[in-house]
């Protein structure tokens, strides 16, 4: 009886491995490292905008956000690549671009998000934020990392390289096990 | 010697008799849980009374608030119907006391409909207000357009502890009628429908996992439109997120890509919008079945065309094909009374797109709007009976956008504070056929109730067409016992009370009554100069002249907006604070008295 049950379980496990969402996301993340151009990414936020990123003004708490600006061509070029990468995922996913702040290496900011607005790291509305340890590790080692921080969500973080071979950003390839068609419609 | 227990009994009986009371306030002052006027509404003359006379024009409501004061135990409240031939109809609502931790107090706002006669107990075991001895009720009295002018009386009656208290209510119906179309549009904005699940847990559980595809779901959407419409407002639901995700019921289902992208089906869209756009969703209302006057389109930088093709022929083809099909569908359905808004809500700070659709600050972003205007022109036939408008919500650079986007944007929703700097703007924009509204927030329950009327009056005084309250359906996680104040809501989920729809609020009704007054006053402009009506209303509201409602264009308005900050803007708009923060509780009563006197004088 047990032997017969084992025979049934083996193909079930194989199927489960083949459909493993983390594996699918990891493959997309690997491709993203090859395809996303770190030099273009570095030009997305304008120098003027960067100068406001960490400035504090007690009379104007939104100063950084109100002055946030991007170079359109670099943004759109990269966003198109990220959208195309997301189409490689087996299920609905987003490919987000993250970059450390030039003025504060302990902080990171999401630079491009995509249509489903999924992320395990972005607190809604944050212009920039403390560097999560997982991102720090990816930026330091160049190794992809699978993250399951929030229930029902999987992200794979992968490095983005510039032409010098330096890691200057990372992508978050993220999916939900049970997508909600109305989530983030707000 | 009298036994002590008899003394105690005698004392209790006297106290019960003395404690049973029925008092009344006009709509503008609110009762607290012991039957006194709550602190924010304190002002000379704000005293509970034992009778009331309400004056109103035909085709509208008059309202008052009753407080049943009972020291302990059960009571019954009844209001006799008005004489049948009067046509007057009474509706009664129990007021919920919300505990606001930041103010450490209880404030009435949510209105639970009750039938008369109504039996209850005090303190209310559900509301759990410590020391509660009074339960306030909102009384709405509908005066139909066909009512005969004259005085009509009824009686409210409270029975408790063997005591009966009666309170006379007289409604003086004027010969004047409130026009069906309001002088100003008060818009109530909201975002998506995902919040239904959190606000209606009982309904969602009852319907089951298919809730978001169920008749109950679509009925709930319509119920929100209906409650706002009944209160002379407009309800808006934005159906997409900051990176372009569209809720299934806010857009037709698409299929294909590039030149083959097309509308696959209209099932969810038509279930959602059909009854709203043909007006049938409002068939049971007193105002009658009218199509919603405005609706957001689902169009955004990612829908119907994907950003992956931005700037390429495929983007234009996807956009034009789908929007053309939408125009065709709307035309076939006869949905030609609604303005469909092309509106971009995204901000680049949220990292979905490279430009600001909402409150654009940088001039380079205008180019995107020009491109979308071009695409719309390609998609919509010039002679289409379907009304498409291009709406922009503007703040920082509104003055430049008025100039640079002339002929592109034709529906402006302007930040209220900065708009005051540009006193010629409303006239100039309206002269070229544009719609002009302003936007802002909603006074919380902790402010004087009269503050609900400030933005309404400003809208009318400045000659602006409408005012948008940017969020009106978010009462917070626990509106009942741990309330943030209601600055982002004017309705409450009825789920707690077994009602599959929204509850109106005291503030919503105060707002409705003020819209009626403004509309009635505006209608008198045929016999008196409109400017004189405005000056008189402004003077009664807070003693100011209309001119003072405008601000002064600051010198820095001529500098590069990139150099502005919120701090400098706040400094330049601070003079307007007297129109926001120092409005006394009687402000609207004075305006209403003027409206009624004026309406009586006009033959």
Explain this structure to me?
- The complex is a heterodimer of chains A (186) and B (603).
- Chain A is α+β, with helices and mostly antiparallel strands and 186 residues long.
- Chain A is built from seven helices and six strands; from the N terminus they run ααααααβββαβββ.
- In chain A, strand 1 and strand 2 form a beta hairpin.
- In chain A, helix 2 runs antiparallel to helix 6.
- Chain A starts with a helix and ends in a 10-residue tail after the last strand.
- Chain B has 603 residues and is of the alpha/beta class.
- In chain B, 29% of the residues lie in helices and 24% in strands.
- Chain B is built from 16 helices and 22 strands.
- In chain B, helix 4 runs parallel beside helix 5 and helix 6 crosses helix 7.
- The N terminus of chain B is likely disordered.
- The interface between A and B is large, with 37 and 40 residues.
Any descriptors?
heterodimer; A: 186 residues; alpha+beta; 7 helices; 6 strands; 38% helix; globular; B: 603 residues; alpha/beta; eight-stranded parallel sheet; five-stranded antiparallel sheet; disordered N terminus
Measure the end-to-end span of chain A: 54 Å
What's the main sheet of chain B like? 8 strands, parallel
- Integer average pLDDT of chain B: 94
- The counted number of beta strands of chain A is 6
Low-confidence stretches of chain B: 1-18
> In oligomeric terms, what are we looking at?
heterodimer
Proportion of residues in β-strands of chain B = 15-25%
């Amino acid at each position: 009886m047990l032997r017969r049950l084992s025979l049934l379980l083996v193909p079930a496990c194989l199927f489960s491995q083949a459909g493993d969402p983390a594996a699918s996301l990891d493959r997309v993340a690997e491709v993203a490292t090859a395809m996303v151009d770190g030099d273009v990414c570095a030009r997305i936020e304008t120098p003027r905008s960067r100068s406001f990123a960490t400035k504090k003004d007690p009379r104007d708490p939104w100063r950084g956000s109100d002055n946030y600006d991007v170079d359109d061509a670099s943004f759109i070029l990269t966003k198109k690549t990220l959208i195309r990468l997301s189409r490689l995922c087996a299920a609905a996913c987003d490919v987000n671009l993250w970059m450390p702040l030039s003025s504060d290496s302990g902080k990171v900011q999401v630079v491009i998000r995509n249509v489903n607005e999924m992320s395990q790291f972005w607190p809604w509305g944050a212009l920039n934020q403390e560097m999560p340890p997982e991102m720090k590790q990816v930026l330091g080692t160049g190794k992809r990392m699978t993250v399951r921080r929030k229930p029902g969500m999987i992200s794979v973080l992968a490095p983005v390289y510039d032409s010098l071979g330096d890691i200057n950003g990372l992508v978050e390839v993220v999916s939900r096990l049970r997508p909600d068609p109305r989530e983030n419609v707000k | 010697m009298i036994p002590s227990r008899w003394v105690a009994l005698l004392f209790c009986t006297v106290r019960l008799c003395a404690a049973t009371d029925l008092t009344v306030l006009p709509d503008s002052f609110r009762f607290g849980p012991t039957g006194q006027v709550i602190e924010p509404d304190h002002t000379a003359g704000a005293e509970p009374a034992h009778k009331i006379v309400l004056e109103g024009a035909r085709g509208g409501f008059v309202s008052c608030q009753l407080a049943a004061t009972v020291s302990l135990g059960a009571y019954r409240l009844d209001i006799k119907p008005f004489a049948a031939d009067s046509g007057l109809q009474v509706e009664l609502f129990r007021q919920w006391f919300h505990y606001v931790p930041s103010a450490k107090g209880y404030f009435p706002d949510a209105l639970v409909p009750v039938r008369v006669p109504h039996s209850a107990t005090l303190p209310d075991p559900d509301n759990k207000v410590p020391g509660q001895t009074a339960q306030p009720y909102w009384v709405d009295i509908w005066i139909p357009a066909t009512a005969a002018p004259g005085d009509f009386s009824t009686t409210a009656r409270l029975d408790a502890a063997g005591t009966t208290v009666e309170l006379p209510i007289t409604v003086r119906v004027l010969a004047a009628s409130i026009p069906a179309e309001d002088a100003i549009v008060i818009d109530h904005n909201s975002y998506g429908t995902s919040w239904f699940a959190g606000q209606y847990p009982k309904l969602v559980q009852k319907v089951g996992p298919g809730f978001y595809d169920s008749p109950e779901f679509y009925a709930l959407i319509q119920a929100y439109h209906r409650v706002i419409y009944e209160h002379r407002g407009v309800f808006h639901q934005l159906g997409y997120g900051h990176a372009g995700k569209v809720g299934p019921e806010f857009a037709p289902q698409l299929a294909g890509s590039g030149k083959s992208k097309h509308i696959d089906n209209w099932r969810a869209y038509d279930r959602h919008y059909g009854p709203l756009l043909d007006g049938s969703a409002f068939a049971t209302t007193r105002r009658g079945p009218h199509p919603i006057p405005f609706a957001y389109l689902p169009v955004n930088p990612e829908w119907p065309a994907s950003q992956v093709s931005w700037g390429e022929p495929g983007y234009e083809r996807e956009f034009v094909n789908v929007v053309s099909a939408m125009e065709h569908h709307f035309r076939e359905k006869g949905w030609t009374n609604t303005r469909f808004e092309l509106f971009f809500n995204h901000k680049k700070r949220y990292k979905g797109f490279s430009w600001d659709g909402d409150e654009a600050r940088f001039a380079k972003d205008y180019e995107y709007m020009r491109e979308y205007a071009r695409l719309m022109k390609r998609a919509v036939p010039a002679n289409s009976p379907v009304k498409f408008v291009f709406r922009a919500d503007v703040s920082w650079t509104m003055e430049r956008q008025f100039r640079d986007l002339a002929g592109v944007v034709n529906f402006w929703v302007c930040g209220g504070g900065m708009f005051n700097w540009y006193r010629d703007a409303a006239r100039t924009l309206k002269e070229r056929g544009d719609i002009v509204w302003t936007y802002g927030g909603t006074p919380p329950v902790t402010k004087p109730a009269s503050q609900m009327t400030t933005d309404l009056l400003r809208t009318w005084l400045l000659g602006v067409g409408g005012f948008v309250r940017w969020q009106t359906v978010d009462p917070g996680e626990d509106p009942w016992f741990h309330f943030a104040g209601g600055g982002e809501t004017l309705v409450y989920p009825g789920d707690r009370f077994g009602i599959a729809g929204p509850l109106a609020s005291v503030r919503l009704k105060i707002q409705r009554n003020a819209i009626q007054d403004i509309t009635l006053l505006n209608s008198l402009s045929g016999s008196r100069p409109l400017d004189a009506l405005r000056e008189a209303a402004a003077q009664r509201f807070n003693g100011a002249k209309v001119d003072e409602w405008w601000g002064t264009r600051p010198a820095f308005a001529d500098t590069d907006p990139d150099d502005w900050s919120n701090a400098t803007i706040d400094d330049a708009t601070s003079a307007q604070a007297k129109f926001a923060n120092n409005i006394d509780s009687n402000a609207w009563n004075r305006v209403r008295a003027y409206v009624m006197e004026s309406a009586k004088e006009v033959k």
